[in-house]
Amino acid sequence: MRREITGFSNPTVKALRALREKKHRKAARQFLAEGLRLLTDALECGHVPQMLVMSSARDPHPLLDTLEAAVLAAGGEVIETTPDILSKITGKDNPQAVAGVFAEFDTAIERLDRHAAPIWLVAQALRDPGNLGTMLRTGDAVGAGGLILIDDCADPFSVEAVRASMGAVFTQAIAQASWDEFLPWLRSGPGQLVAASLRDAVPYRGAPYTAPCFLLVGNESRGLPGEYEAACDLRVTMPMRGRADSLNAAVAAAVLAYEVLASLEA
Amino acid sequence: MRREITGFSNPTVKALRALREKKHRKAARQFLAEGLRLLTDALECGHVPQMLVMSSARDPHPLLDTLEAAVLAAGGEVIETTPDILSKITGKDNPQAVAGVFAEFDTAIERLDRHAAPIWLVAQALRDPGNLGTMLRTGDAVGAGGLILIDDCADPFSVEAVRASMGAVFTQAIAQASWDEFLPWLRSGPGQLVAASLRDAVPYRGAPYTAPCFLLVGNESRGLPGEYEAACDLRVTMPMRGRADSLNAAVAAAVLAYEVLASLEA
Fold first, then answer.
1. Where is each RNA 2-O ribose methyltransferase substrate binding domain found (chains A, B) (predicted)?
2. Using CB atoms within 10 A as the burial measure, which of A121, A183, B64, B71 is most buried?
């Protein structure tokens, strides 16, 4: 179905704007993603938006036509609106010409196939959606299978996380679990749990990584709880040559993930 | 001098709040940093705040006493205010108990001593203050000398950049220059310019890095201009196993910097 919306007070506009808030996303079981490239990535990974919102000021593009056709073929809606309204919806001053509304994915950990990839990223109580999105993006780059979110993490379907993921939210599997759900799942099959740690750790370079390798990083300010570190098969440490005693969580995950990638491929 | 401020409309509160905006920072030649740990790092690196703003709800702490004494000894001001006003000043819902106002540093590139460190980070047109702060933090971790900002970058003295740097804004040298200023400066002495690149590049692992090594990363969306890449002594590429063709800029800098660190120390 196609519609044109020109009023800020239109109920669809209100519902779309509300997707910027977690409680509304959870109620609607939907999330928002912006940009032609990102939506094209999504489509190529099999994710068709339920609704496509296009700016009346867009330039024509064959990929946009493809998107539109896919949405209509799947029974979704295509909405044309003003750049101002699109800006209100996405919360961005210079909005992309197109945004899509997607059904949230099932993030049950039982759905993960650990044999699908040699590397998995695991974040514990990660609070910053930008860090979370960046970890998804890094996971895509190193050929990881996905990101497992332990305990109370930022929402991977927030606009900020989706944006920072640069499309990897559609290519990486995402699971959410408590530590008490995660650990039994992990131990029910093969898998090496590796923590970036300062305690009782070996140098991260040349450490004995084995696939499937699960790389665990902790909360931005508190790091990993001691008992979580203790449950790991391997604790590795990165050089810290300056005054600081830790790296940004997404940076630590990336440095470690690239080391594991090199090690497993050697 | 000591003062107590209880009113939101106090001119000092207005001036401090204004430091969240770049034009006011540049006019005042000052910037704001928050948190006891960060301010203590600053002090230990020889940076005494011109003004210390403390919450009336703070817990006593010997490091806070040390800070207060240092500010008063240097002829600065110590201000006590309410948590609400401190929150307004820093723009944070749960403000730290203390914030400091610092004189902006001189960021002329001529002041850098390239022999002071084996690694230097260089960012071109980096637009995200969080990425910039994260690069400073990574620089501290790998023992870099500092961060050189080329062309139109985010402001390293913004609240977001200072916060993301976790204190490294005080430990890392910061320089700002146009490309046309940077390149002659670089070529006036020893220094290998290395670009993270997709074109005409060798694998980043095992590449022939030499100190002082200048690691150049480009703008978040456009990457490096071709002529900048061409001017580099070495172009290296990182594996991209997924759909994406680039990493987050701060992540790329970190993966590369840790590789260079390992290479130079081997």
1. 32-108
2. A121
Give B222→chain A minimum CA distance, Å: 14
- Contact check, Cβ <8 Å, A248/B134: yes
Out of B44, B243, B261, name the one closest to residue A167 (CB).
Answer: B243
DSSP A223: B
Q: What is the pLDDT along chain A (266 residues), one digit of tens a residue?
A: 889 998 889 999 999 999 999 999 999 999 999 999 899 999 999 999 999 999 998 889 999 999 999 999 999 999 999 999 999 898 877 777 899 999 999 999 999 999 999 999 999 999 999 999 999 999 999 999 999 999 999 999 999 999 999 999 999 999 999 999 999 999 999 999 999 887 778 999 999 999 999 999 999 988 999 999 999 999 999 999 998 889 999 999 999 999 999 999 98
Reduced to 3 states, what is the DSSP secondary structure of residue A9? coil
Taking contacts as CB-CB distances below 8 angstroms, the residues of chain A near B249 are: none
| Residue B104 to residue A147: CA distance in whole angstroms | 40
Residues B103, B104, B105, B108, Cα dihedral to 10°:
-140
Angle ∠(B204,B209,B213) on CA atoms, nearest 5: 110
* Nearest neighbour of B141 by CB, restricted to A139, A241, A262: A241
Q: Where are the alpha helices (DSSP H) in chain B?
A: 11-18, 22-28, 36-44, 62-73, 83-90, 129-142, 159-165, 168-171, 179-187, 226-230, 249-265
Cβ contact A243–B41 (<8 Å): yes
Q: Strand A146-150 vs strand A77-81: parallel, antiparallel, or unpaired?
A: unpaired
Question: What phi and psi, each to the nearest 5 degrees, are found at residue B176?
Answer: -125, 135
Identify residues of A whose CB sits under 8 angstroms from chain B CBs. 41, 44-45, 130, 134, 137-143, 164, 166-168, 171, 205, 238-244, 246-248, 250-251, 254-255, 258, 261-262
How confident is residue B124, by pLDDT bands cut at 50, 70 and 90?
A: very high
